[in-house]
């Protein structure tokens, strides 16, 4: 379980810039409007005119399993994927930050074990912020029922996709936890 609160990317910018809550929310809105604008460009110009590779160049590097990249790439060029992105972003921009994880906890007595990405941010301070937020979220969700130490994925190439991109590491870590 690698759980971060919704909006952590904006909380990290707030931390880095020492912003107030309102400054962070204003930045979030501007960021989401920028994302919506990009998706509108993709839907209105890039897809109809065949220019999507200019907006999103093919890059199979790091995609696991590499043999599946052509299928993924083909799907990412379809209009319905971008229409879904558009409506999801519009909904996100119209609502407050989702507090689902903040309001969620496992029942008492259920023990939680965790594998998490060690470096998730953009720099060492950001990485530390993400780690602390994830630990806080884990302790909240687990109701403080975390039974063993968290196993951190800190190896080269470790990212949020480590369960898929690093299957041997993940399997060994799960076995170390007795799962």
TrEMBL record:
The keyword Membrane applies. The chain crosses the membrane at residues 36-56. Keywords: Membrane, Transmembrane, Transmembrane helix. It comes from the Eukaryota. This is Alpha/beta-hydrolase. The lineage of its organism: Eukaryota, Fungi, Dikarya, Ascomycota, Pezizomycotina.
């Amino acid at each position: 379980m690698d759980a971060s609160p919704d909006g952590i990317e904006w909380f990290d910018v707030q931390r880095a810039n020492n912003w107030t809550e309102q400054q962070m929310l204003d930045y979030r809105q501007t960021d989401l409007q920028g994302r919506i604008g990009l998706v509108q460009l993709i839907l209105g110009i890039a897809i109809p005119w065949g220019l999507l590779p200019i907006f999103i160049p093919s890059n199979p590097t790091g995609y696991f399993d590499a043999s599946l990249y052509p299928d993924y790439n083909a799907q990412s060029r379809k209009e319905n994927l971008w229409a879904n992105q558009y409506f999801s972003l519009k909904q996100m921009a119209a609502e407050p930050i989702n507090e689902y994880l903040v309001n969620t906890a496992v029942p008492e007595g259920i023990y939680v074990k965790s594998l998490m990405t060690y470096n998730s941010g953009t720099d060492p301070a950001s990485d530390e912020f993400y780690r602390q937020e994830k630990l806080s979220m884990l302790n909240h969700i687990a109701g403080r029922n975390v039974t063993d130490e968290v196993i951190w994925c800190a190896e080269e190439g470790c990212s949020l996709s480590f369960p898929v991109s690093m299957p041997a590491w993940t399997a060994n870590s799960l076995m170390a936890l007795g799962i």
